[in-house]
Design a protein that fits this description.
alpha+beta; Ammonium transporter fold; Glucose Permease (Domain IIA); 12-stranded mixed sheet; 18 helices
Length: about 700
């Protein structure tokens, strides 16, 4: 139960405003099931009206909460649905007990206002001090108070109590577990019938297989544990409070934690723990003759999330999307594209240098100091020096500028160690002349073996990434001029090293890498920026683009505008589909896509997910999420398996430079160990913004940029 999109009621007469308002209204219902899926919201809305009294009370509660928000905070343009779904649940709970009347509406209005104010307040407290969502705490609190209040409200019970009749509708004779599961699903929305639960189950199955598996597993485990304790296996499944098990399993297994074997195990452990809590709360609440509502769900999920905030022992979801599959796909792709396996630093030099010793090197990179990188310069014949190499000046690396590989504060310098003659080494002063820089990401970067007297920074000085800090020398334990780089967690001279990688580098003059781990004998260089490419791939806010897509003789035209998303990201959109992008040296990247996988923007995402904005004619690689590329049914099945093994499938992209104006990309689908070429694209560039044409012979698709 977490907010996903804004909910302002539509203003004005235009149809699109009404459509958007309705979409956001139904999102409130869907948000109870952790999604913004419109179909789920519509189905839940209809289910609440299987008992018209319940549905009307829920709708009225939303209306009262919205009117209160407009009255007290008219300047606000929108609120997230989680500010309303708690009020909706409170309204449903009142409608399940009392028939609609002026007195009941007064109670709903007071409860909705109370819930809305409590939701806003608790959300501020929970997010600031606990770092957890409010879930449905406001609903559990206010509904309990309303039921307690109703016990002494004689007029409500005498004149407004809603008569309840048992449903006579059923599918067929079923086991108590199946019947109980369906009724429990319906009970989440105060309609404990097989029909209501069956419709919700069907919607869940079509929406997310991971959701269904977690719901079924959570319900089954919780019910079986209590059945073993109570010794009543048949009657146990009739307990409608077991919807708490469903919500706990889904929340921890697939929403707030990234779907994985660890999250699934965590969810089942939480369900097992909650079974004791649920039984105890039932006993306590029975003394007041009121339901326990979602109290066990809130306490257990809130407790586990706060525990993980403290310990960092689980992969928390950062970007909440419409289903566990979407969350998983986004997480895997985001990690592959934007999260290096180790801290990433820049190169400490300009030009091309050879990595002569990497991690676990054969000479000095051993034991606690195994993670280091040594760089020197070799000519085309593989020699490190000219002439006979008897003097330091013969070596190509000697005296070359050394650059800061990170931005940070200089905490230690050594600059008075003599340079060794070629072939000799100073064991007593192992590191020679060094610069130690503190990076605010939590580590120190040591650059060693600089030339005597060449250090050009001072202790306490802040240095920028790429700033000159000295010259390459041959001081310390160094038989020939080279640059040594390592990362460590403390400033002491002999601190153990940690693994790292280099960011935005050209390898061997033929390939660009966003990050690359040190490997012996590879040649690395920083890319040369291209101002013309950067200008071409810097769309401006408010700029409009027109693209024509021709596929198998049929043409469509799309108009796309550059707008700013609420989270600050830039995106291209036609109002329905959204393609997020970022321009920053040395890459232009389409970050993420939301919408129809058959749209022009989806093709643009697949054809050119990224492009190096550099002069170097090099190949590059990238990855794409699965859902925008392959069919929905296949993608959902693959992601279900991938939730158990995150490396099960990938969409790999390989890009090459054909000329100054041509780029060629290939998309490969890897499932398990099988890899298959699925798309090819030829992209034509010009001096105007974004590509001028994109052509895929494998799909017979041609996209042309038109004049707006």
């Amino acid at each position: 139960m977490k907010g996903f999109s804004a909910f302002p009621l539509p203003r004005g007469v235009p149809l699109e405003h009404i459509t958007e308002g309705l979409r956001r209204f139904f999102t409130i219902y869907a948000d109870i099931f952790f999604t913004n899926n419109l179909a789920i919201g519509v189905i839940i809305f209809c289910v609440t009206f299987f008992q018209p009294n319940v549905g009307t009370a829920g709708f009225a509660a939303i209306a009262f909460a919205y009117l209160f928000r407009r009255l007290t905070f008219p300047a606000a343009e929108s609120f997230e649905p989680f500010y309303y779904y708690n009020a909706l649940l409170v309204g449903l709970s009142i409608g399940a007990l009392f028939r609609i009347s002026p007195l009941t509406l007064l109670m709903i209005a007071a409860a909705a206002v109370f819930t809305f104010a409590l939701t806003v307040s608790l959300n501020s407290v929970f997010s600031r001090y606990l770092g957890i969502p409010i879930l449905s705490f406001p609903f559990a609190i206010v509904s309990s108070l309303c039921y307690l209040f109703a016990i002494r409200s004689t007029n409500l019970f005498v004149n407004n109590l809603l008569p309840h009749t048992s449903s006579t509708w059923s599918l067929a004779p079923t086991s108590p577990a199946v019947t109980g599961f369906l009724k429990t699903l319906g009970a989440i929305f105060f309609n404990d019938t097989i029909l209501a639960g069956g419709l919700i189950l069907l919607a869940v199955l079509l929406h997310s297989r991971i959701f269904f598996l977690l719901a079924a597993a959570g319900y089954s485990l919780g019910a079986l544990i209590i059945a073993h304790f109570y010794g009543a296996y048949t009657s146990t499944f009739a307990n409608l409070n077991y919807f708490n098990f469903i919500l706990i399993a889904v929340a921890l297994g697939g929403i707030f934690l990234i779907p994985s074997p660890r999250s699934y195990l965590t969810a089942l452990i939480a369900v097992a723990v909650s079974s004791i809590l649920l039984g105890a709360v039932e006993v306590f609440w029975a003394g007041f003759s009121i339901p326990i509502f979602t109290l066990p769900f809130n306490l257990i999920v809130g407790l586990f999330l706060h525990y993980f905030n403290i310990t960092g022992g689980a992969r928390r979801t950062i970007t909440f999307l419409e289903s566990p599959e979407a969350i998983l796909d986004h997480h895997i792709n985001y990690a592959a594209r934007f999260l290096p396996p180790h801290p990433a630093i820049g190169l400490p030099f300009s030009g091309e240098w050879t990595l002569s010793q990497a991690f676990d090197g054969e000479y000095t990179h051993k034991g606690p100091w195994r993670y280091g990188a040594d760089f020197l310069i070799r000519d085309s014949s593989g020699r490190e020096h000219s002439d006979n190499g008897t003097t330091l000046s013969d070596y190509y690396a000697f005296g070359k500028p050394v650059l800061a590989p990170v931005a940070g504060r200089v905490v230690k310098i050594v600059s008075d160690v003599e340079d060794n003659a070629p072939g000799e080494a100073n064991r007593a002063e192992n590191w020679g002349n060094t610069v130690l820089i503190w990076d605010e990401r939590g580590f120190y970067v040591k650059v060693a073996h600089l030339a005597k007297g060449s250090v050009s920074v001072t202790e306490g000085q802040f240095v920028a990434h790429g700033q000159k800090i000295g010259l390459c020398g041959n001081s310390g334990y160094s038989p020939m001029p080279h640059i040594h780089v390592q990362l460590q967690l403390s400033p002491e001279a002999n601190s153990p090293t940690i693994p790292f990688c280099f960011s935005n580098v050209v390898r061997d003059g033929i390939s660009f890498h966003s990050w690359l781990e040190p490997r012996r004998d590879i040649v690395l260089a920083s890319p040369i920026p291209s101002s013309s490419l950067r200008s071409s791939f810097s769309p401006l806010l408010g700029e409009t683009f027109l693209f024509e897509r021709t596929c198998r003789g049929r043409s469509t035209v799309g108009r796309f505008e550059v707008v700013l998303a609420p989270d600050g990201r830039n995106l291209l959109t036609d109002g329905e589909n959204k393609l997020f992008f970022h321009t920053g040296p040395p890459l232009f990247r389409f970050l993420d896509y939301s919408g129809d996988r058959r749209s022009i923007l989806a093709d643009l995402f697949r054809a050119l997910p990224s492009i190096p904005l550099i002069q170097n004619r090099v190949a590059w690689s990238d990855t794409l999420p699965i859902r925008p590329v392959i069919s929905r049914g296949t993608a959902e099945a693959v992601l279900l398996v991938q939730s158990f093994h995150h490396d099960f499938a990938r969409i790999h992209v390989r890009g090459t430079v054909e000329s100054d104006t041509l780029r060629h990309t290939k998309l490969y689908r890897r499932i398990g160990r099988r890899k298959k070429l699925i798309e090819e694209w030829t992209v034509t560039l010009d001096r105007r913004r974004l590509p001028s044409t994109l052509y895929s012979p494998t799909r017979d698709v041609l996209i042309r940029r038109l004049e707006p």
